[in-house]
Amino acid sequence: MEIIRNISAICLITATTIAAVATESADSITYKTKQQRLSLGGYGEAVMTRNFYSDAWQRYSRPELHKDDPSHGRFDLPHVVVMIGYDFGKGWTMNSEIEFEHGGTESAVEMEAEETGEYENEIERGGEVALEQFWIQKSFGRAFNIRAGHQVVPVGMTNRHHLPNEFFTVYRPEGENTILPCTWHETSIEVWGRIGDWRYEAMFLPGLDSDRFGSQGFIHDGAGSPYEFKIANSYAGAFRLENYTINNLTLSLSGYFGSSFSNSLTKNSKYKGHHGEVIIGAFDFLYKSHNFIARGNFDWAHLNDSKQITEFNRGSMSTSSPSPKTAVASDAVAAGCEVGYDVFALMKNPALSKQKLWVFGHYEYYDSMAKTAGGIMDYDWCGKHFMAVGINYYPIREIAIKAEYSKRFFSSPYNNEPALSIGITYAGFFL
Length: 431
Prior knowledge:
The chain is mainly beta. The protein is 10% helix and 48% strand. The protein is built from 5 helices and 19 strands.
């Protein structure tokens, strides 16, 4: 706990005494295409992890039985993304991102000789393939732009800064990635721009779907849709404000409001009048200077009618429904920060002048069941402290080799979860 207090103190001091960073990835495709019409880029991550805890699904329901279970290892491709942008001229631009999560999917139809020649569907690899972004933008100037299409919802630090060179940990920060959709992308309409030291975004989008809310992830899965369309019986709004008044420091405030209970193909008149409004408020900061990088965030999310949504999902869904059919909390929180220092900056070797070696510390607390309505059980294991220490080595600007030792801390009787992770990433433009 002393380490946790020390890291938290460092983050507080850094946020209040030092100063600001220029806008990053969300605008990069726009400015890139002003130099040449076609832009081609992307990012990707390859990871190896050894988890020194049980991988049994009952490890939270029966923790005493899994205290001494053996460790387990995993190889993963968390995200591989291809970005294509084009400048049509006269202020019209296009951007698209195709994302392969965990290696994508591989399936095939095979004839099984040992099974009398039957044709069978074979699943060879799990994963997801998604069109994460596809939008058309009309720019009227630096202060005002309109985007329409499929784009990232700018709520929370990770949704705004989700490229692998925008966080130190091997995987994306756990807190926001647990309680919020992340990376959150919706078909929507947005206006954005920069005026002086302020950058703004305002978005109109479909509301979340409460059918897919759950205990472990709160509203995380409510942005997706298992159908060939996104249900939009109710709508939502999102915004983000960023301020760069202090040199080298970006201060950001973002939020969301929208109903969720009506965004379902299943209707039940018993719950008429309940809307399941989702309210999110988030603050984050980013500091870059004096060979330091510090980032921090605090997110709070509230769900109205969580008791009715829990009853509906548990009692009204068919067994074949994609709903997790678990209890949903009324409130969830996530807070954290990380601080890194480039130790190569201390060295006078010219060969290292364009390389970086960040040594970092990272801390988060998050709880997908921070508060529950009456009659809904609060699962204590949903509240976690997460700590990590490690390095990021950049031999060149676009490539990073990451290594970390991390640990999740739980209250008794649950078992802590240490892990060792190594990854290699890239992020950049090819054209």
